[in-house]
Design a protein that fits this description.
The structure holds two protein chains of two kinds. Chain A is an alpha+beta fold. Chain A contains four helices and five strands. Chain A has a five-stranded antiparallel sheet. In chain A, strand 3 and strand 4 form a beta hairpin. The chains are: A alpha+beta, B alpha+beta. At the A-B interface, helix 2 and strand 2 of A face helix 2, helix 4 and strand 2 of B.
Chain lengths: ~150, ~140
């Protein structure tokens, strides 16, 4: 089966986003804990951030005219892929340090891999994005690797 | 919970031990609040005519990372203050819709006494019993 991955496409591996620095607040923790049906008091009170709080903290805040008609923001880290139909992907999240209100965290996303597999129904493109989240001391707080599949 | 109690609890954990199940039935309000907290404007989560007529879904889609969060909660509620969640991996395999009742749960796969860690298989199942979001978590006891 043909190789869909051009040299130009593969050269985007290693591309890195502009680091994004955000403040963790008690109010944002509480809203997230409520919206996720969390039952633990320390999270509902905003004393500590629950796992996956980095998801709302670092979701792109884009302006309305930057959203596509279906309401999705374009991920500027990603190149244009020759396949566009997104299939289920997966995440791996490592929790290295706890997160508390008042913490400043900085996230940097890197496109770490693009590869092709040929399935029975045709070619699939896989790509991986790693988001490293560090505190102001430079210590790793969370590492998240997302793998997505395009067909 | 003190360390001695955490150690005693760890020793009593065995493969195939079952984590408590929990039911979730997210409604439009929860879905709106969750996506608003993320700043996720994807119409499939709140615009029912769009989700059905344009995207062809049977209803409003429950956001994938919300199911991921429930996998984290499944482990954390079981763990309590005896340890911490070290890592989790999961994927969203089957779409789920507002109106469905989902269940989280899991079981112990292995323990590693040398490092005080437990590998746990977690899942979200739909009403048909299909695993819509499988995962593997690692917890470390104090």
């Amino acid at each position: 089966m043909s190789n869909l991955l051009s040299e130009e496409l593969l050269s985007t591996i290693g591309r890195t986003s502009t680091p994004q620095r955000e403040l963790v607040t008690r109010r944002d923790i509480r809203k997230y804990a409520v919206a996720t049906s969390n039952r633990q008091r320390k999270y509902l009170d905003g004393d500590q951030a629950p796992p996956m709080f980095h998801v709302p903290l670092f979701w792109d805040v884009v302006e309305l005219d930057q959203l596509s008609p279906d309401g999705v923001s374009i991920d500027s880290l990603l190149p244009k892929f020759p396949l566009e139909k997104a299939m289920a992907g997966g995440l791996v999240i490592e929790y290295h340090r706890d997160i508390f209100p008042g913490d400043w965290l900085t996230a940097t996303r890197t496109l770490t891999d693009i590869y092709q597999k040929n399935g029975r129904s045709g070619p699939l493109i896989f790509y991986e994005v790693v988001m490293d989240i560090v505190n102001d001391e430079g210590e790793l707080v969370i590492r998240e690797k997302t793998t997505r599949i395009l067909r | 919970m003190n360390r001695a109690e955490s150690v005693a609890r760890f020793k009593a954990i065995h493969p195939d031990d079952v984590l408590p199940q929990r039911a979730f039935k997210p409604d439009n309000v929860q879905s709106m609040l969750y996506n608003a907290v993320l700043w996720n404007g994807h119409r499939i989560h709140f615009d029912e005519p769009y989700a059905k007529d344009v995207e062809g879904y049977p209803g409003l889609v429950i956001a994938g990372p919300l199911l991921g969060d429930w996998l984290n909660q499944c482990v954390e509620e079981w763990l309590g203050e005896d340890g911490r969640l070290v890592s989790i991996e999961y994927s969203n395999r089957i779409a789920t819709y507002i109106g469905e009742t989902l269940h989280s749960g899991g079981k112990v796969l292995a323990t590693r006494p040398d490092v005080g860690e437990v590998d746990i298989e977690v899942f979200i199942k739909n009403e048909a019993g299909e695993v819509v979001a499988p995962g593997i978590a690692v917890a470390r006891f104090h």
